[in-house]
Amino acid sequence: MPKTTHHYNNEELTIVWKPDICIHSTLCWKGLREVFDPSKRPWIDPTGTTTEKIIKQVHQCPSGALSYYMNNESAENDIIAESAEMLNLEMEPNGPIIITTACTIVHSDGRKEIKSGITKLCRCGASVNKPFCDDSHKKIGFEE
Q: Averaged over 66-88, what is the pLDDT?
């Protein structure tokens, strides 16, 4: 079954939403309701606030279902430019590995996925969205 991807753009950037990997943390709409409003269709309005506020909120997405790219550059070039920085990893106690910089995930089937913002990787093995964390570690009482 193909993965669904939606694009919502304003003059400066395009918000990319991948509903198949969304864990419905509600951080997006609780943090920036003028852009992310689940009671509306479409539920994302990239004209609702400034590009800077959108970028800041998209970086809060724990699953990576939300990402963005600047319209004046290709998405891949924008992320590659960011990735010139050192990769930053954080180990959440009794939780996932958190990548706080852009990265490329190479899946076991060879498929590559470029991620920007915060990416959380499962350490407990219980996620139904591997390799990404879906907070299953809390349900199973995972301890490192």
A: 64
| CA dist., res. 131 & res. 99, Å (int) | 12
- Dig out the tokens for 52 from the structure: 């800077």
When the pLDDT of each residue in the chain is averaged and rounded to a whole number, the result is 85
pLDDT of residue 20: 86
Q: Is the pLDDT of residue 127 over 90?
A: yes
Residues in the chain: 144
11-31 confidence digits (pLDDT tens)? 999 999 989 888 898 999 999
Cβ contact 113:107 at 8 Å: yes
Question: With helix as H, strand as E and coil as C, how does the chain read?
Answer: CCCCCEEEECCCEEEEECHHHCCCCCHHHHHCCCCECCCCCCCECCCCCCHHHHHHHHCCCCCCCEEEEECCCCHHHHHHHHCCCCCCEEECCCCCEEECCCEEEECCCCCEEEECCCEEECCCCCCCCCCECCCHHHHHCCCC
Q: Which amino acid is at 47?
A: T
| CA gap 44, 142 in Å, rounded | 34
Residues 6+ apart with CB under 8 A from 124: 136, 137, 140, 142
